[in-house]
Amino acid sequence: MKKRPFITSMILTSLLLLTGCTDEPKPEDRFADYTKLWNKQNFEGMYDYLSADAKKEISEEQFSERYEKIYKGIEMEDLKVEYKLPEELPKHKDEEKVEVTYSVSMETVAGPVEFKNEATLVKEGKDEKENWYIEWGPNYIFPELEEDEKVSVETYPAVRGEIVDRYERGLAINGTVAQVGIVPEKMGEESAAISQVAKLLNMSVEEIEAELNQSWVQPSYFVPIKKLPQNDAKIAKLISIPGVSITEVTERVYPYGAATAHLIGYVGEASAEDLEKLKGKGYTANDVIGKRGLEQLLEERLRGEAGAKIYIKADNGTEKVIAERKGKEGEFIALTIDAELQQDIYKQYNNEAGTAAAMNPKTGETLALVSSPSFDPNQYVLGMSSAQQKALEENKDKPLLNRFSSTYAPGSTIKALTASVALKNGVDSNKALSIQGLTWKKSNWKDHSITRVANPGIPIDMKNALIYSDNIYFARQALDLGKDKFTSGLKDFGFEDTLPLEYPIKASSIGDISSEGRLADSGYGQGQVQMSAIHLAATYTAFLNEGNVIAPTLIQKDKMEPTIWKKNVITAKQANQLTGMLKQVVTHPKGSAHSLNDLKLNIAGKTGTAEIKASKNSTGTENGWLVAMDTKSSSLLMAWMIEDVKGRGGSHFVVDRMKPVLKKYIQ
Description:
The protein is α+β, with helices and mostly antiparallel strands. The protein has 22 helices and 23 strands. Strands 6, 7, 8, 9 and 14 form a five-stranded mixed sheet that branches. A five-stranded antiparallel sheet has the order 16-15-23-22-21, sandwiched between helices. A hairpin with an 8-residue loop joins β21 (603-612) and β22.
């Protein structure tokens, strides 16, 4: 019985020899296990592999904390620590120290970091057994890192690209604004100071106190409260209040304010919803993104890229750079817009509800896209209170509605298109229709009739129909053409088609014109026909371009050349013929746009008044229209619409508003 342990030991030894389990621990295996823990960022597990001397220099808590802080600070992702085991492991029976080579790669805020390094393993006895342990030092994290040195990160914010007009006047620029703040310990009588600041900044006392009571605030700290434009008159009063201080900060600025708000839009901090939509594109909660208009539509081109540098500052003051990614500025985008023209149009609207589009009819360059009334986009950047936002949203004039991207009944401005479709289908422009009185209807119509504004007292041909803006003439032309030809003719001009513009505009539509009444009404711009101002302007380019509709464009290119959107919608002869008729709408004493003749410019045009009402017998409002184009230099073509002109002169209300702009820009 006493010999059994010896026999058992002999058997175990024999088994171990047979299975190879008597091999000594190998440093390669130990380091391979260590790298597995490293890849999992199991720093506590990694600490167990450190040598005794290494553990004397750093505690487990310090070890884990250093890795965690550095990796978090550099925004480390995709860590890959690789160590390849040799096919045949060498024997290290008599060695006390071994070096192995490993590689590390990771993604950081400053770009990819890759390095190779040497790890030293030493043989140590532990629990009556020998094993291999790592002589760890800070250089395992980064080869350049030494004892008592820190890894630092410097970030370079992304510089957003600017948007300018055709003359490089700023529309969305990176400017400076005044940051109003309070240093608590300098306030003196706190309640009095807060009350004065709240009144000047249109904030509540509670809102300011909430800023001052944040957990990070110390008595000597500058606490930001609100941003103001640099030239704001309130600044002088604010700095006279004890504790108030003003600093300059970089911010997005919109020099033309409300005049370009719907076109340019504004930026704001990325919301959780924004981040979800932009997932995978590198955005964070600290980023500013386009929220509306071109700022949103051109976000990818404008955003730029942030830069960063990861470095170690040595005792002698030199920097050891681990990684650096230069910031990339967003694209500088020049529009075809003339900002001064845009602003002058907006001023003429004087908060009247409506929209306007201006373009160069030869090149297709969009010179203005106006929506009125509007809002100040700078307020969104500087900070808008919930009360201010609510007031905008509930304003009956709908300043947040983008009218230039919407469609409306074009009224009599469509008559030039109806005339074009008629000419294309063989109608003789000189053939006059004999029309008696102010109303007309087909014999089979019961409750529908067409009314015209005036009775010229003569048979009406196409030229006079445009001069007098005769609804009955164009209603009859649409009826004679029939639904199919009329629809086809309008589609030739781009109806039901997406406008080829770098800004989404609702497609102009024909609607349901299956009944004779609706077809007739559509011939003079009522019915269900709907157009956007920019599409209306584009259709009139056919009259100055030998029957070709020029595509509007909004963003400047290296080589600006006109693009034909709709080719040969009418012949060159028909285009010239219609231009001559539209000139007489201005020059003829009875022309609906005759007051433009006072300018003594070569202008052709067409007015329009569209009735807006729920039913034929109800009382509604009217929208006034005017399309006017320079026929001499062909440098400007505009389409304006102002809402609710009934009882205020109808389309003549629009003519009077447009005249100063025509005079300034055509002369």
